[in-house]
Amino acid sequence: MSRVRRSALSAVLPDVLDVIPDLSGTKSYQFAFAGLCCQDHSVNDQGRPYAGASREQRESARREQLVTAGISLFGTQGYRSATVGAVCAEAGLNKRYFYESFATLEDLLCEVYGRVVADLRASVLAGGGEDAAAVLRGFMSGFLTWAQANPVQARVHLFEVLGVSAQVDELYRWQGRTIGDELSSRLSATVDAPQLTAGQQRVLGDVLIGAGVQMVVNWVISDYQPPRDELLDEMDSTLGWVLAAGLSTLR
Fold this sequence. Notes:
Blueprint: H1 3-12, H2 16-19, H3 27-38, H4 55-74, H5 84-91, H6 98-101, H7 105-124, H8 132-149, H9 151-160, H10 166-190, H11 198-221, H12 228-248
Helix pairs in contact: 4-5, 4-7, 7-9, 7-10, 8-9, 8-10, 8-11, 8-12, 10-11
């Protein structure tokens, strides 16, 4: 090996010349040199960055791809028709990457449902209202608007999670009660009356969520008829009748 070449190599790979004898021009030299050059001594427990992203970032990105694919498939073809292979194909990932993030398809459904409800929650609780009627109208207006604007997510929430398993049923009840508790608290704050007990507030939340979900289910199945504002007006008049009927029993 020429003196110039050895000097250049020692500046870039100082350990090479201590390991590789002067075998310039031989196959032994070529293989040994290539082997050392291809070694990556910077790899650590965090994994080597690839395309500017760490291993954790790549895993997180793949998880998001799977969740997005799950929402799409569960909300169009249905959860019971979906398979791990179909989800991975929709996500554009090798099937082995599914089990990097989820143990079962049901685990993915739980994650998907959590994302869907978080989006729904932001919509139904976005409105305010100084009285009970305004709070209820804001809640239902947000629910109806969300369901019509997001039919894929609405199918997951209204239909696909029902009756899957005890685990999913419990998640469904918990999510509904969480929103119901907040809604009933808002209603209680608008009424000049003794505060409800915790049990009464829970019952009120269950009633409101149950009625609200059933209204939206019927509306979606009826192809969003009657128009949203017309349905909201009917709800207002119905609640007015219920209130009047309740007051009449106190006379």
